[in-house]
Design a protein that fits this description.
Elements lengths: L6 H9 L5 E2 L3 E2 H6 L1 H7 L11 E6 L3 H11 L5 E6 L4 H6 L9 H14 L4 E6 L4 H14 L3 E5 L15 H10 L4 E4 L5 H11 L4 H7 L5 H6 L1 H16 L35 H7 L18 H9 L33 H11 L2 E2 L4 E2 H29 L31
Parallel strand pairs: 1-3, 2-3, 3-4, 4-5, 5-6, 6-7
Antiparallel strand pairs: 8-9
Length: 423
């Protein structure tokens, strides 16, 4: 789970019976580029109690995925390629489930990592609408070198309001078609769902049986104590027949924490004006991927808040300032730089050429000129003193030289007699 299955959660899960855990999904390109990202998300969380551990990455480049795996293989027991993330950020970055149609790329990524890494390669996928295509997809990954496959029984479009129910028939077909271990993902809401999933899909039972033994934390009973007390009255009235518990699709009383399955949106009925308002209320339309014209309908909530504080603020991408690149390093250059460079490159060049750049506040030439003027003035003062001394001296008379350590004559007022010790 992204930003959820960190070390604390994994240790808690292992304490209650989990034998295998995954890291949160890590971005392979950032993992390779940023040492702090590696340390904060994997290196600093290594401990003997958190093994076996699978490090999960999202990637769309074989070489980058390989480099990330090489940096992580000494800190985990397997490397997982996430091919099931359906979120909008995965669509923008072109990874996750949005790579499931690029079989040649996926085959190259898995095959290269399987050949070069010292730990196994696993994959997590989502299914296609067609069962046969899902089976061929799984077989392709197995042939490329995938050694464990986690199958989420939902398609790429089943998310948000269209989440729906996972299809275990796809998982069952994949389990029969491949020879590697298969994990089933989706529709596990109650403890009884675990055994039902095992029976319907035929997946490996060893890890799922251990997961089924996980029980609630003891502290949860204390948390729900107050809620039970509030409902005791209602339960007592129900037993006495004074009041009935509201009936619904939930199998347990309403005061117990239990999952909720979101119903699918209603289909639009054509040529039915009376039902149009109701259908429009049930359908939810997500905002556009990118802000096109900067109107409130296409802005995110954060940008809408900023616009409420500043009504004149414009988020249109076309109105964003365009920054010219530095001629040497590619970073944004100074708008008024005399060399058309960024500050770092401008500072090096100005220092080397002894030049000024008012835009970046660099005054190397000005300082050098000032130092040369001060030297000339100091030399002029010494020359003037020499000429004045020569003018006061008579012709043929030597210029008197002042002693380095002058001492007053003996007997002079205020003089101190010279002792043998001092001499």
């Amino acid at each position: 789970m992204v930003d959820q299955s960190e070390l604390a959660w994994r240790l808690l899960s292992r304490r209650h019976g989990a034998q295998l855990c995954y890291t949160p999904m890590l971005h392979a390109q950032v993992f390779v580029r940023d040492p702090n990202y590696r340390r904060e998300n994997l290196y600093a969380e290594v401990c003997p109690e958190d093994r076996p551990l699978i490090a999960q990455f999202c990637a769309n480049d074989p070489e980058v995925f390989l480099q990330a795996g090489l940096l992580a293989q000494d800190y985990c027991d397997a490397i997982d390629l996430n091919l099931g993330c359906p979120q909008m950020i995965a669509k923008r970055g072109h990874y996750g489930v949005f790579l499931q149609d690029e079989w040649e790329l996926l085959e190259k990524m898995v095959k290269l990592a399987n050949e070069k890494l010292s730990v196994p390669i696993t994959c997590k996928i989502r299914v296609f609408q067609d069962v046969d295509r899902t089976v061929r997809y799984a077989q392709m990954l197995e042939k490329a070198g995938c050694q464990l496959l986690a199958v989420h029984g939902r398609t790429k479009d089943q998310k948000g309001a269209f989440t729906g129910i996972a299809d275990w028939e796809h998982i069952k077909a994949v389990r029969k078609a491949v020879s590697i271990p298969v994990f089933a993902n989706g529709n596990i809401q109650y403890l009884s769902d675990v055994q039902r999933c095992i029976q319907e899909t035929g997946i490996h039972q060893d890890l799922r049986e251990e997961l089924a033994k996980v029980k609630n934390v003891e502290g949860l009973a204390e948390v729900n104590k107050q809620l039970r007390l509030r409902c005791q009255e209602e339960i007592a009235k129900e037993k006495e027949g004074i009041a009935e518990r509201p009936r619904g699709d939930l199998p347990f009383p309403h005061w117990m924490c239990q999952p909720y399955v979101r119903p699918p949106p209603k289909e639009c009925v054509p040529n039915s004006r009376s039902q149009e308002p109701e259908v429009k209320k049930t359908l939810s339309h997500k905002r556009a991927l990118e802000d096109t014209d900067g109107t409130p309908d296409t802005l995110s909530k954060n940008k809408q808040k900023k616009q409420a504080r500043n009504p004149h603020k414009n988020f249109c991408p076309e109105h964003k300032p365009k920054y010219l690149k530095c001629e040497q390093c590619g970073n944004p250059k100074g708008n008024k730089c005399v060399f058309h460079l960024c500050r770092a490159c401008c500072k090096k060049k100005a220092y080397k050429e002894v030049a000024d750049c008012p835009s970046h506040g660099l005054r190397f030439k000005t300082k050098a000129d000032k130092q040369s003027v001060e030297k000339e003035q100091a030399g002029g003062v010494e020359e003037t003193e020499t000429q004045r001394t020569e003018a006061n001296t008579e012709p043929g008379q030597a210029v008197p030289q002042e002693p380095s350590n002058p001492s007053p004559p003996q007997g002079a007022a205020g003089s101190t007699p010279t002792s043998p010790l001092n001499s």
